[in-house]
Amino acid sequence: MAQQAIAVSHTYRHQVALAAAAGTAIPKTAWMAFGRSDRPYEPETDFALGDEFVRVPVTTQVDGPTLIASGVLTGEAAGGNTLREVGVFTADGTLMGRRVLAPKSFEPDTEFEVELVFEY
Description:
Helices cover 14% and strands 45% of the residues. It has 120 residues and is mainly beta. The longest helix has 13 residues, at 10-22.
């Protein structure tokens, strides 16, 4: 199944441009955040989720110019919240990108794995 890459936030693009200009490293992809907001994603202005309720560590894999960030939300961590948005953040807290989902509710013993794809 083809995966659609999400647009990176302008805040993250700015961070990458500064690192390239200075010859420094960009912060590591570190967190996947889950939230309740159904506000549309606006890469030009978004810097956080609309209504975050939990963050989990991500695993990443790189394939050519593609970075895949994966995270798992457990029903216990969801705590009765309805999931509507997912975002990936760097170790310094910069939003890399955000996706709005159809509402999802969870039982305590369930798990939901999410992959967000970024192309460079």
